Amino acid sequence: MDDALTEPEIVALTADHMQAAAGIRRVALWQRLPWLPDVHTPEEEEQYWRMHLLPNCTILGAAMGNRLVGVIAYGDNWIEQLYVLPGFQGMGIGSSLLGCAKEEMNEIRLWTFKRNAGARSFYERHGFTAEEETDGADNEEREPDVLYHWRRLPELTLRLQPSGG
């Protein structure tokens, strides 16, 4: 079996990738949460990625062959976006992308919608804990959400203490 076909390549994304990144978010989000209001056009979402996320975040993509199948945007102890195309979920792609962010930050916060059981379970499996829940009044979709938090545990150093006599 060829590992190149099963293991995604994690790559830094550029402005040329922002339309595809925004598209992954759109497809993944609306398939999981079809009841959410569609508050932005695809063009507005691409502009958000290009004008807000790209200059302020590290944006990585997971590529399988020549196809972008997952994206993450993070920085300043926040994950702003993390999405994997539905047909590629459950293959470790989200975990790989999240691992890149965890390598660079000692503490991470992120928001996810309360009804997004799949995302909540994913983050909890990766050591995140729910810190706050809202009624959604402060987000564009007016959908209740949850603030998650992860903190790197201090390295535990085992020291052998000489027994005193």
TrEMBL record:
Residue stretches making up the N-acetyltransferase domain: 8-154
InterPro entries: Acyl_CoA_acyltransferase, GNAT_dom, MshD_Acetyltransferase
Pfam families: Acetyltransf_1
Protein's UniProt name: GNAT family N-acetyltransferase
Source organism of the structure: Rhizobium indicum
